[in-house]
Structures are given as structure tokens and as C-alpha cells.
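Quick illustration, no need to memorize.
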Amino acid sequence: MSLIKREPSAAQSRASHANSLRSTGPRSVRGKEISSRNSLQPRLFSEVVARSLQALGESPGDFEHLHTNLAQAMEPRDAWEAAWVQDIAILRWRLERLQRAEVGILAVRKQKRAGERKRESMPASGVADLGLRQQIPLVGFTGLPESPWKFQQVIQMLRQLRDLVRVGEYQKDGVVYFDLLYGKKPGALGATLRGRFEGLCTRQAEKNVPEGDHEQRALCSEVDQEIENYEQKLALYAAEHREDDPVREDADLLLPSQELDEIIRYETHLEDQIERKLRQFYARRREPVLRQTEALPASSQESEAGESACQTASVGA
């Protein structure tokens, strides 16, 4: 191979020149606009913000992925439009963070409510149990807060009382059941049941309670009705406090009105800011188009030709 540098021939020079004319870049207006944005890159979050994202458990890379996708879709042409794109990316990131926070709040609330229902179904213990037992002499088991344990104790004592009445054992010791059930100040029903039982106790002491006595049958009937009532209350309570109740689980998804209002206001604020940034972005995007549609000024040759035509027309007139 020869190492001597040779001058290109005239034909080669003409061909090289012709090829260079074909590779001088885009010639159309749109092509030039696109090529002018080749060196324009979206700005990155500063290191301080990146560290803050990491402290929140968020990935700066995920944000930059969102930022880059928006920049590719919106095609900013200069630094101003690139800044608007970044602002929109930040607002969108905050909106997604708000949505994650809302879901997190609902998940925590749902877990808390499930735990509360589970604790409500368990017997009281410790200080809570001591507090309940201190209330029994005053209000009885029927006056305690509703719980499966309360209903079970009431039903059990009522059944024992009914058995005493059925076999005709009307000892004074049986009155203790009414104290446990209804306390020192019973209601109308508790006072009625206690009065019937004490009356049977007095008659038995006098040996004046025949088999199948009317008062005995009436007391058994009333105690049976009370047992049925508390069995229904226990069933209703169990249905309302089911741990796997889908209706209650759906109800737990609704936040309190104050928290929900705050979330909605902030979400609306972010959406309004995004909409405002988009309007600013596309308003500026339309400016060059408006300028291109305006009538271009006539060139000097066209002006001279127009003046000559006007003079000719005036002379002919």
C-alpha cells in the first residue's frame, strides 16, 4: 500500500462537495427545532433532595425515571420549558406520595380496628378485670359493658336460677343470683323477678307452694324469656364484631371526616398546581406557532415591484 498522499482529483472533489451538501443537518423548520433540543437534558434533583427522598424510603432513581418519561413526552425546547416539566414531575411525585400515604393510613386503621375487635371478644384481665368486678355489686353483670364474657355469664346464671325454680328450691341463698345479675338497684324486670322469687321463698317456708304453682310457672317463663333475650344479644354482638366481616372491613376504609377533608384539599391543591403548570407550558409552546402564522414582511424586490405596479396603475388612471 502506498503511503504517499495524493491530491484528490477534480471529480472526487466535486463528489465530496456534493455529499457534504446532503449531510448539513435538517433543513425544515420542525427538523431544526428538534435538533436544537438534542443537547437539552432534564435537570436532576439536587443531592440534598435526593438524600431527603432516601430518608423517606423513596428512590431518587424512581423520581428521575418519572421525570425523564415526562420530558420525553412533552419535549421541552429550552431551559424554561424543562423547568416546567421538572415542576410537573415534582407535583406528580407528591401526588403519588399522598396516594401511598392515604393507603397506608387506611391499612393501619384497618389493622387497629381488627385488633380492637379481637380484644373486645376476649375476657377482661388485670386492672380492667378488677374494675369490672368492682362494678358488679352496684350494677350487676347486666349493667357491665357489652362483651361476649358478660353475655355468657348472664346466661349461665339465669339458667342456674331457672333450674332452682323448676325443682322448687326457694332458699334465701338463691337471692344472691339477683344481686349478681341486677345489682343493688335493679331495673323494672330485675325487681319483678326478684319479687316473685322472694314471694315463692316465703310461701315455701309456709309450705304453701303446690306442684305446678302459677307463680312458679310464671317465674320460669320470665326467666326463659330473659335467657332468650341475652342469647339474641350475644348472637348480635358476635355478628357485629366478626373479625372476618367484609362489611365492617369495608367500613373501616373510610377515614374520619376531618382527615378525609385534609387529604382531599391537599390532593385538589396538587392537581390544580399541575394543571396550572401545564397551561403555562402549552401557552408558551403555542407562541412560536402564533408568530409563524403572522404575515411575513415583503422583501425589498417585492416592495419595489409593488411600488412600480402602483405607479403604473396611477398613470393609467
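The chain has 13 helices and no strands.
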